[in-house]
Amino acid sequence: MRIDAIHRRHRGDDRALARPFLRNAEGFFHGTDKLLPRFPDNALHFMAIATELALKAYLLGRGISDDWNRIHVRHDLSKALKSATRAGFKGGSPKLAEVAAVLSPYYKSHSIPDMPTELAASIDWTVAHALIAILLGDVHIEVHRELARVRPEYLVCPV
Predict the structure, then answer these.
(1) Closest Cα partner for 136 from 42, 83, 57, 69?
(2) Domains plus CATH for the chain?
């Protein structure tokens, strides 16, 4: 099935939003390794935001609209990962799906602090942190490759 058949595309071009989404993802991710030992709920929340924004950046770079992401993906990390995979994303780690499955229900309902202790303990969050770092790097490469392919002018950084 073609990507066009899977995802409704926006009449305008939201590809230019991919870079700001990715920058925001990197911003939320930055420092979560230091937050994790002292403020795990905050670190997990920021890691979830970084994951969501990175995957949405990939989708935007592939030409899938911000409206589509807002309506269909929302804050569902598992759905974002599946959508990105369907759109051609081959990066990240297969283990990322496990992290997304644990975080997603609590992230999308704004209740990460309510995650049961035994569920939170089922994930090694230091490893999860590394998986999200890999995701960000892979999305960075893919977004810039896609933007260069489609519209080279997107690579010019405004001052």
Answers:
(1) 57
(2) 14-155 (1.20.120.330)
